[in-house]
């Protein structure tokens, strides 16, 4: 089986970059953009330190991050559902698109995780390197989103 690691890594970066947009909709979300950035940075640092023999620990860390993402998506969906009647047509379309993108990116990240679970040897180093590069790209996109949405996004 051949894995497309760069695609999965970039998908993960794209997913995390979407989080500030969802935060703008969620308003009183439990997890701030800064907290997500910190948690993601810690995850990337952990993955860099893990060798292939610690793959299961890395998988557990990513699964924990996915659980937090799932909680955010559910909270956002609930918030949108409660505010639907008060939302303008443009806001509804934006919310639908954001939720669709979140679910799609979450699925792509789960597929990337499936590849991570089966990674061995040299491929492990490649996965970590691709993830690190994707994180750098995501950080730049996140900074741009914060500038556009304001600090409280």
What would the keywords be for this entry?
disordered C terminus, 82% helix, mainly alpha, 5 helices, disordered N terminus, 153 residues
What would you note in describing this structure?
- This protein is an all-alpha fold.
- The protein has one domain.
- It is 82% helix and 0% strand.
- α2 packs antiparallel against α5.
- The longest helix is centred in the middle third of the chain and has 29 residues.
- The chain is elongated and about 55 Å long.
Instruction: Supply the helix-strand structural class.
Output: mainly alpha
Question: Which residues sit in consecutive blocks of at least 5 with pLDDT less than 50?
Answer: 1-30, 148-153
Mean pLDDT: 67
Number of separate structural domains: 1
Spatial separation of the terminal alpha carbons = 41 Å
Helix content: over 70%
Task: Give the count of helical stretches.
Answer: 5
Using the CA coordinates, give the radius of gyration: 16 Å
Largest sheet: none
General shape: elongated
Question: What share of the residues does DSSP label as strand, in percent?
Answer: under 5%
Q: Summarize the helix and strand pattern as letters.
A: HHHHH
Which helices and strands appear, and what pairs or packs with what?
Layout: H1 5-26, H2 33-49, H3 55-83, H4 89-117, H5 121-149
């Amino acid at each position: 089986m051949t894995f497309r690691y760069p695609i999965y890594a970039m998908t993960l970066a794209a997913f995390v970059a979407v989080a500030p947009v969802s935060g703008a909709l969620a308003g009183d979300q439990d997890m701030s953009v800064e907290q997500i950035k910190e948690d993601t940075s810690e995850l990337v640092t952990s993955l860099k330190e893990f060798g292939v023999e610690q793959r299961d620990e890395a998988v557990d860390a990513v699964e924990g991050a996915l659980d937090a993402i799932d909680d955010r998506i559910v909270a956002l969906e609930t918030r949108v559902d409660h505010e639907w009647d008060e939302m303008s047509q443009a806001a509804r379309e934006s919310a639908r698109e954001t939720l669709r993108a979140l679910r799609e990116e979450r699925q792509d990240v789960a597929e990337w995780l499936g590849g991570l679970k089966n990674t061995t040897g040299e491929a492990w180093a490649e996965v970590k390197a691709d993830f690190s590069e994707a994180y750098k790209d995501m950080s730049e996109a996140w900074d741009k989103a914060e500038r556009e949405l304001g600090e409280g996004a």
